[in-house]
Amino acid sequence: MDIEVSRPIALFIDNKSAISLSRNPILHGRSKHIEAKFHFLREQVNKSALQTVHCSIELHLADIFTKALKVDRFIKLRSLIGMKEVET
After folding, report:
1. What is the pTM of this model?
2. Bridge partners for 12 per DSSP
3. Whole-number Å distance between alpha carbons of 24 and 7
4. In Å, how far from its chain's centre is CA 21?
5. Which spans in 2-86 are helix H?
6. 19-78, pLDDT tens digit by residue?
7. Most buried pick, 1, 10, 45, 51, via CB within 10 A?
8. How far apart, in whole angstroms, are the C-alpha atoms of residue 45 and residue 3?
């Protein structure tokens, strides 16, 4: 696609262990099973092309598309992404 990016792309993650693994270039016994695509992400973090940012589980907007949610959480996330209920 040949798109130039002038700053690191922010990747919002709700798992602090995943953030630590992305920032720490040292492999240890617990991370030996990680697939090649995760090593690519770690490489991008080390090059400063990608920045991992902790995102509270309460503000993780992708959950509305990927998980079954309780009604109150669904309504909160729906409002955060700008959607509103339409009366029929």
Report:
1. 0.57
2. 53
3. 21
4. 13
5. 16-23, 36-46, 63-66, 71-80
6. 777 777 565 566 666 666 677 888 888 888 888 888 888 778 888 889 899 999 999 989
7. 45
8. 18
Alpha-carbon gap, residue 17 to 23, rounded angstroms: 10
Kindly list the distances between the CA atom of residue 65 and the CA atoms of 52, 62, 73, 74, 78, in Å, as whole numbers in the listed order: 21, 6, 12, 10, 10
CA distance 84 to 13: 26
Return the domain boundaries, the chain.
8-55, 59-88
Q: What is the DSSP letter of 2?
A: -
* Structure-block tokens of residue 3: 């798109």
β-sheet bridge partners, residue 11: 52
